[in-house]
Amino acid sequence: MTTNTNSAGSGGKTRHEVCPVSELPPGKKKIVQVGNLTIGVFNVKGEFYALANVCPHQLAPLCEGRVTCETIAPEVGEYELIREGEIIQCPWHGWKFDIATGNSVFNPHKLSTPTFDVAVETPPTDDDGEDETANEDGTDVEGSDQQAEYGTELMGDQPPIDTYEVEVEAEVVVLYV
Ligand code: FES
């Protein structure tokens, strides 16, 4: 688990990095500890949700249950499985909850487990915001100075072309609690 607290988030909530997005593909969940809370973070078909890991029935670790579907009966003697992957089933007595809302599937107005805000963000960089093309006194670095700084020189009348590896920072799943 790679939870770390970085900074105060919006609405007085604190930002906690859960993991890189690549570690939580669709259909997967991750259970993390944030202070005294245990929270399940879910990727449901590309959308991220977070639920308290506690069942309102008898306080079972709800998020350790099976990610499943809802069963409906369109007609007597028939049943249909819908919303596959959107429902968590309590491991103790089988009650089902909507992962997106925390509401009980069978009694949504009276039973629910708390939800938390989740976002996908690019981690903050160490960039100090300084202009890399400026001298310390703020004036622009002229061509020859720049060549010296980067170890390049003109080849004939062709301007030097340097290439650099560019890495796109991996996005992370972030929890606001
Ligand atoms: S504790 Fe979850 S259904 Fe009973």
TrEMBL record:
Query: Where in this chain does the record put each Rieske domain?
Result: 16-121
The record's CDD domains line, in alphabetical order, gives: Rieske
Q: Which keywords fit this entry according to its UniProt record?
A: 2Fe-2S, Iron, Iron-sulfur, Metal-binding, Plasmid
| InterPro entries given in the database record | Rieske_2Fe-2S, Rieske_2Fe-2S_sf
> Which GO molecular-function terms appear in the entry?
2 iron, 2 sulfur cluster binding; metal ion binding
Q: Which residues lie within the region annotated Disordered?
A: 115-161
Entry keyword Cell division: no
In its keyword annotation, does this UniProt entry include Iron? Answer: yes
Family matches, as Pfam families: Rieske
Stretches of Acidic residues bias are at 124-143
Q: Which PANTHER family match?
A: 3-PHENYLPROPIONATE_CINNAMIC ACID DIOXYGENASE FERREDOXIN SUBUNIT, FERREDOXIN-RELATED
| Protein name per the record | Rieske (2Fe-2S) protein
Taxon lineage: Archaea, Methanobacteriati, Methanobacteriota, Stenosarchaea group, Halobacteria
